[in-house]
C-alpha cells in the first residue's frame, strides 16, 4: 500500500489506486476543497506534490491546468491523481478560510471524466 505523507498532518497508508482527493479527505482527514466534485473543472483541489509526483497526467487535468494558467512545479489536481506509489504533498486549497460552506460535492471512486493518460 502506498504511503501518503501530508505536510503538517502525518503519514498514512492508502489503498493502491485510490484518488488522491479521497485519500486526503477520507484517510488523512484534511479539509481539501473539491468544489466541482472531482471532475477537473475548477482547480480548488490543487496540491503541491513535493516528492513522488507521478509522470502520468490525465488529458483533462493537463487542459484544466493550461486554461487556468497553473504552472507552479509539482502543482496538480488531487482529483486527477491516483495513489499508486509513495507521495509527499502540501494541501494548497483548504476549506478553512475559503468562505465556502463545504468542501465540495461527492467524489466518485473512479477518475472523472474517464481518464485518458498522457505524460506530464
UniProtKB/TrEMBL annotation:
Residues 98-120 are annotated as: Disordered. Keywords: FAD, Flavoprotein. Residues 2-95 form the 2Fe-2S ferredoxin-type domain. The keyword DNA repair does not apply. It holds the Pfam family Fer2. One of its GO terms (molecular function) is iron-sulfur cluster binding. SUPFAM superfamilies: 2Fe-2S ferredoxin-like. It comes from the Bacteria. This is Putidaredoxin. It comes from Stieleria bergensis.
Amino acid at each position: 500500500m502506498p504511503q501518503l505523507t501530508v505536510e503538517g498532518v502525518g503519514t498514512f497508508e492508502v489503498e493502491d489506486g485510490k484518488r488522491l482527493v479521497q485519500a486526503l479527505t477520507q484517510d488523512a482527514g484534511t479539509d481539501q476543497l473539491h468544489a466541482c466534485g472531482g471532475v477537473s473543472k475548477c482547480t480548488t483541489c490543487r496540491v503541491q506534490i513535493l516528492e513522488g509526483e507521478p509522470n502520468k497526467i490525465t488529458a483533462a487535468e493537463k487542459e484544466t491546468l493550461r486554461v487556468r494558467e497553473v504552472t507552479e512545479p509539482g502543482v496538480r489536481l488531487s482529483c486527477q491523481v491516483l495513489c499508486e506509489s509513495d507521495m509527499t504533498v502540501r494541501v494548497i486549497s483548504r476549506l478553512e478560510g475559503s468562505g465556502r460552506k463545504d468542501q465540495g460535492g461527492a467524489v466518485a471512486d473512479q477518475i472523472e471524466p474517464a481518464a485518458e493518460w498522457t505524460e506530464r
